């Protein structure tokens, strides 16, 4: 054990290191936050006992005699703060994607006092948004009724049947012109379907509502079967088109669902429709990378905004990064 720790690649000389050998019947007390390394011989069983320091005062933590522990204590306090607040903050941040999605789907929020629609009344996407009570009720809230949810599920199901219905093996034998049109239209259709599914998920509250979790699971279970390799490839593209916020809320629905077997079944059913078995699980890896990226970015905002009292929004505005949007399918 030692009060000062020297990283393996450092050129500094270790100082104040203590080597202690423990035999049967003896115990060694190591203060919280002290770097230490343990080596056990054969036929040895070691037992660790952790003490509760919940009553430790901030003044004692910051005492000059404990300065060597400040890094550890700061990390631990930040970790606990993030664990306690990141889910609520992520759910709030996910809702911020709604305005951008509405604009992509044909509803320009900036023109809400005039005619915000940029698509004709008979458009299937507009039918979906109006069924989900978009328009007069732009801000999602918990009073969204079951009828609105069922309307959204119905339109998504109809549109998905159209999109996946175009993956007809007979198209392979079509003329070159017909097949070229198919190749051009399909990625756009999958991107639009991904936007609609993302919007539906973002309007839900899976962290607290079992009804909303079941609605999300039903959305995916009602999608067309992936009975060909082409359709499985389409499902992989579709999942890549979901926004990061939608991916996070979907993963949260799996995490919160009880019994856990229902969540596991939904997870396996969804990714079982992709071509992950021939792509070494790439779709699943990309999905989880989106979830981790969204959570880490939200945690960063919590640290900068709540703990450091900085303005993460201003930092983002000054950056040259492209805002997170749906994937571009080419």
Provide the fold topology.
Elements lengths: L57 H4 L8 H26 L2 H8 L18 H8 L14 H20 L10 H27 L7 H12 L7 H12 L3 H13 L3 H13 L9 H26 L4 H7 L12
Helix pairs in contact: 2-9, 2-11, 3-6, 4-5, 5-6, 6-8, 6-9, 9-10, 9-11
Describe the structure.
The protein has 330 residues and is mainly α. The chain has helices at residues 58-61, 70-95, 98-105, 124-131, 146-165, 176-202, 210-221, 229-240, 244-256, 260-272, 282-307, 312-318.
Give the overall shape, derived from the CA principal axes.
elongated
What share of the residues lie within helices?
40-55%
Rg is 26 Å
**Number of beta-strand segments:** 0
Instruction: Tell me the span between the first and last alpha carbons.
Output: 56 Å
Stretches where pLDDT is under 50 for at least 5 consecutive residues are 135-140, 171-181, 318-330
Query: Structural class of the secondary elements?
Result: mainly alpha
Strand content: under 5%
Pattern of helices and strands = HHHHHHHHHHHH
- Report mean pLDDT, rounded to a whole number: 81
The helix count comes to 12
Outline the biggest β-sheet: none
From the structure above, extract its key features.
single chain; 330 residues; disordered C terminus
What's a concise summary of this model?
With 330 residues, this protein is mainly α.
């Amino acid at each position: 054990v030692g009060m000062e720790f020297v990283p393996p690649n450092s050129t500094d000389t270790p100082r104040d290191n203590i080597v202690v050998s423990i035999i049967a019947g003896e115990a060694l007390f190591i203060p919280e936050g002290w770097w230490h390394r343990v080596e056990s011989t054969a036929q040895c069983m070691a037992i660790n006992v952790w003490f509760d320091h919940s009553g430790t005062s901030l003044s004692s933590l910051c005492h000059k005699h404990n300065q060597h522990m400040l890094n550890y204590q700061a990390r631990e306090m930040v970790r606990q703060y993030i664990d306690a607040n990141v889910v609520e903050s992520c759910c709030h941040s996910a809702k911020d994607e709604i305005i951008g999605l509405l604009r992509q789907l044909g509803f320009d929020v900036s023109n809400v006092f005039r005619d915000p629609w940029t698509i004709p009344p008979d458009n299937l996407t507009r039918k979906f948004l109006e069924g989900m009570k978009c328009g007069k009720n732009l801000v999602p809230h918990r009073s969204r009724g079951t009828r609105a949810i069922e309307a959204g599920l119905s339109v998504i199901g109809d549109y998905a049947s159209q999109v996946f219905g175009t993956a007809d093996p007979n198209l392979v034998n079509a003329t070159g012109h017909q097949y070229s049109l198919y190749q051009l239209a399909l990625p756009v259709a999958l991107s639009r379907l991904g936007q609609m599914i993302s919007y539906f998920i973002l309007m839900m509250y899976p962290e607290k509502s079992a009804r909303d979790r079941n609605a999300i699971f039903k959305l995916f279970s009602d999608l067309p079967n992936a009975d060909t390799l082409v359709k499985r490839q389409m499902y992989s593209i579709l999942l890549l088109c979901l926004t990061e916020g939608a991916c996070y809320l979907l993963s949260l629905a799996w995490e919160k669902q009880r019994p856990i077997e229902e969540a596991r079944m939904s997870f396996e059913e969804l990714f079982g429709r992709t071509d992950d078995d021939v792509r070494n699980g790439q779709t699943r890896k990309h999905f989880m990378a989106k979830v981790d990226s969204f959570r880490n970015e939200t945690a960063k905002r919590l640290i900068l905004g709540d703990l450091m009292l900085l303005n993460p929004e201003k930092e983002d505005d000054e950056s040259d990064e492209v805002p997170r949007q749906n994937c571009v399918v080419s």
